[in-house]
Specification:
Elements (H helix, E strand, L loop, with lengths): L20 E2 L4 E4 L4 E3 L3 E2 L3 E4 L3 E9 L5 E9 H6 L1
Parallel strand pairs: 3-7
Antiparallel strand pairs: 1-6, 2-5, 4-5, 6-7
Length: 82
């Protein structure tokens, strides 16, 4: 850690919450292993939006019985078509 202090880095966190509008390429979270990339999201360590839209989360059960939380982005074009 910087300066010999045992504090976590401040930039390793969730950057966008559910319902927030995001732009293409905007970072959604950094270095959090509890979230996985879903629809219109790419990346492993730092996940970013592939299109402009709104953030939402889904939970799915794996074949091993664990739940995973996925970060997804609803495109703006899909919102306007409704």
């Amino acid at each position: 850690m910087a300066g010999g202090k045992a504090t976590a880095k401040k930039d390793e966190a969730l950057k966008s919450t559910a319902g927030q509008p995001v732009k293409t390429g905007q970072i959604l979270c950094r270095h959090i292993n509890t979230y996985k990339a879903g629809k219109n999201v790419k990346g492993q360590g730092s996940m970013f939006a592939l299109c402009s839209g709104t953030v939402y989360f889904t939970r799915k059960k794996t074949p091993h019985g664990r739940f995973r939380t996925f970060i997804n982005v609803t495109p703006e074009a899909a919102k306007k078509a409704k």
